[in-house]
């Protein structure tokens, strides 16, 4: 009976972590996959979705999404539906691979390094991708939201030898129940990053240059409390920065994923309107 109880506890913990929300989404296919970084034998790719009739001579906004999974696992396909939708609206949309513990035995530091590398690679290849390097959106869910937010806020964790003259700071952030507070008081997974938490926690690195941000969060998220998001918004505004917080009643962690159609549609429409307010999209959302 005791063994059964232990197994049940382990199962509960597994399905309570962000990695349980790192869904592999099927039924979507990127137009191409491009290697943006090589580390030893590991080649990291960008899964690119292009608008119809897209050309390299275009200058379109670009969105780069980072999957969730607690810095441990996950799949870029989690954001394939978001990428396909944004491509249908005229944005070049990318689901990025990055190193995770289960596959590469890495730490959160490498996750952030790869996120920064992805943004820099996209900017430096703007003429090949047909994108505007001054209209770069970073997005992600859960730990992927952390990676996206960290590219915009943290100064540390740049890959050795990388050209840091190319900015890794995106022009806008789209964050789905993001892990953006890693502090010792209520921060998520502080124990994993306690030796360098002040450098890697986006909530503790907000500045007057942090890009405009939208945060989408369920009110019953057991990992990211509403109070954390409200504090983030308050600190953003104290620095003169825009932070739109959308709360979804009675929704838990991972509520926004494609397998939950009503929430997926609601959050994608909110994302669309946010990007339209920045001039990256025109008209009303087209998602039915």
UniProtKB/TrEMBL annotation:
Residues 1-22 form the signal peptide. Keywords: Hydrolase, Signal. Residues 64-256 form the Alpha/beta hydrolase fold-3 domain. It comes from the Bacteria. InterPro entries: AB_hydrolase_3 (IPR013094), AB_hydrolase_fold (IPR029058), GDXG_lipolytic_enzyme (IPR050300). Belongs to the 'GDXG' lipolytic enzyme family. This is Alpha/beta hydrolase fold-3 domain-containing protein. It comes from Novipirellula caenicola.
């Amino acid at each position: 009976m005791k063994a059964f109880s232990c197994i049940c506890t382990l199962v509960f913990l597994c399905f309570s972590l962000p990695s349980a929300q790192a869904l592999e989404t099927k039924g979507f296919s990127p137009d191409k996959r491009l290697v943006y970084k090589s580390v030893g034998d590991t080649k990291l790719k960008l899964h690119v979705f292009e608008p119809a009739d897209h050309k390299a001579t275009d200058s379109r906004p670009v969105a780069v999404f980072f999957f969730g999974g607690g810095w441990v696992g996950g799949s870029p396909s989690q954001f394939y539906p978001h990428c396909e939708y944004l491509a249908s609206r005229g944005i070049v949309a990318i689901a990025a691979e990055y190193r995770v513990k289960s596959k590469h035995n890495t730490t959160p530091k490498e996750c952030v390094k790869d996120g920064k590398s992805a943004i820099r690679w996209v900017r430096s290849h703007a003429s090949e991708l047909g994108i505007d390097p001054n209209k770069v959106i970073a997005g992600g869910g859960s730990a992927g939201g952390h990676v996206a937010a960290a590219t915009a806020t943290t100064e540390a964790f740049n890959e050795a030898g990388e050209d840091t003259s190319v900015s890794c700071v995106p022009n806008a952030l789209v964050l789905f129940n993001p892990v953006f507070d890693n502090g010792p008081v209520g921060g998520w997974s502080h124990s994993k990053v306690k030796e360098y938490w002040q450098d890697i926690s986006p909530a503790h690195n907000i500045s007057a240059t942090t890009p405009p941000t939208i945060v989408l969060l369920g009110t019953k998220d057991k990992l990211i409390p509403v109070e954390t998001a409200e504090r983030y918004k308050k600190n953003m505004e104290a620095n003169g920065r825009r932070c739109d917080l959308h709360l979804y009643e009675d929704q838990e962690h991972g509520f926004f994923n494609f397998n939950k159609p009503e929430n997926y549609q609601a959050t994608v429409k909110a994302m669309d309107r946010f990007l339209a307010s920045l001039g990256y999209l025109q008209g009303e959302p087209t998602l039915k």
